Amino acid sequence: MQQNFGMRRFVPAAVLCAALCIFAACASGGSSTGNGGGSTSTATMPTKTVKTKPTGPITVNQALCDRVLTKDEAGQITKTTVTSVKIIDTGEGGSCNYETAANRAAVFVAFFPGGAAAVQGEQDQLKNQPGFKGTVTPISGLGDSAIGIVNPITAGLIQYHVSVAYGTLFLDCVLPKSTAGDAAAIDQLKQVAQLVLDRL
């Protein structure tokens, strides 16, 4: 099928063994008020929630896929009609495939261990790949580090990736085939990646 995990070869084997993913949040704040008579007061502090980054494998299931990106959102971003979400679990990661028809993904989002090492490995492998005629471009402001990839597979078929390191997570957002043009396709994937990161 078109959405099989070509990106798996980029994930270093040493990082595939990791502990359970833990998320935590902490908040601080408080208030004390008083009036007159020498009483003291402090301003109310805003509550600040801190979300920790992934520190281990993420379980890819229907609940995760529904939470990080809905069918409607995937369709709106890619300008397609997404009718179903296919979940693939490889045992060392997996993906949410947002399909317009059976085995035809408009976009898919893959989750693997690896973090920054996997993103760097993907970049190095593509640049050293004989005959690679695409581009690999750093993206700022997305996760810990991110790259956009334009990868011509065959004549008339271009595959687009936005790969992101976030904690120990290697997130790969992919348009298997798009006619939107390079800049627009990468922009669509950046939108997908940001939604996913915000909801992990």
Helix percent band: 10-25%
Strand content: 25-35%
Instruction: Supply the number of helical segments.
Output: 4
The first-to-last residue Cα distance is 27 Å
- The helix/strand class is alpha+beta
3D structure, described in words:
The protein has 4 helices and 7 strands, in the order ααβββαββββα. 23% of the residues lie in helices and 28% in strands. A 7-stranded antiparallel β-sheet has the order 1-2-3-7-6-5-4, with helices on both faces. The protein is an alpha+beta fold. It is globular. A hairpin with a 2-residue loop joins β2 and β3.
Properties at a glance:
200 residues, 7 strands, 23% helix, disordered N terminus
Ordered list of secondary-structure elements with their pairings:
Blueprint: H1 62-68, H2 71-78, E1 84-89, E2 94-101, E3 104-113, H3 115-127, E4 135-139, E5 145-154, E6 157-166, E7 169-175, H4 182-199
Briefly summarize what is shown.
Helices cover 23% and strands 28% of the residues.
